[in-house]
């Protein structure tokens, strides 16, 4: 069984920073991509940032230049460094990963349970 566990969410003032972490564990053969999504109250879930196994990254226009996604392949962990935070960044942030399991050798998308990020003005 593969699990994703997020950490690092919390309350921060506008202009501040937070660093989110997401660690994948379980019977993992390979991780093809990892990313972060977010969903604010009354809004649709959106892709914030993603990174492939080769290191290619993609960012939402709203966070480009402020957020940085990175990964530690040895630890099966992805990070989201969030700087210059704005109140509109307030949302539940979800980690997602496309993983090939070692047990079944099947590629599947896994999701974490989410971590709350609140930015006050």
Could you give the count of β-strands?
11
Q: Can you give the mean pLDDT?
A: 97
Helix count from the secondary structure assignment: 0
Class per helix and strand makeup: mainly beta
Hey, roughly how much beta strand do the residues contain? over 45%
What is the alpha-carbon Rg in Å? Answer: 14 Å
The ordered H/E elements are: EEEEEEEEEEE
Biggest pleated-sheet summary: 7 strands, mixed
Helix share bin: under 10%
| Low-pLDDT ranges | none
The outline comes out as: elongated
Query: What gap, in angstroms, lies between the N and C termini?
Result: 41 Å
Sum this structure up briefly.
The chain has 121 residues and is mainly beta. The chain contains no helices and eleven strands.
Summarize the structure in words:
The chain contains no helices and eleven strands. Helices cover about 0% and strands about 60% of the residues.
List keywords for this structure.
121 residues; mainly beta
What is this structure's SSE topology?
Blueprint: E1 3-7, E2 10-13, E3 18-25, E4 28-39, E5 46-52, E6 57-59, E7 67-72, E8 77-82, E9 91-101, E10 107-111, E11 115-120
Parallel strand pairs: 2-11
Antiparallel strand pairs: 1-3, 3-8, 4-5, 4-9, 5-6, 7-8, 9-10, 9-11
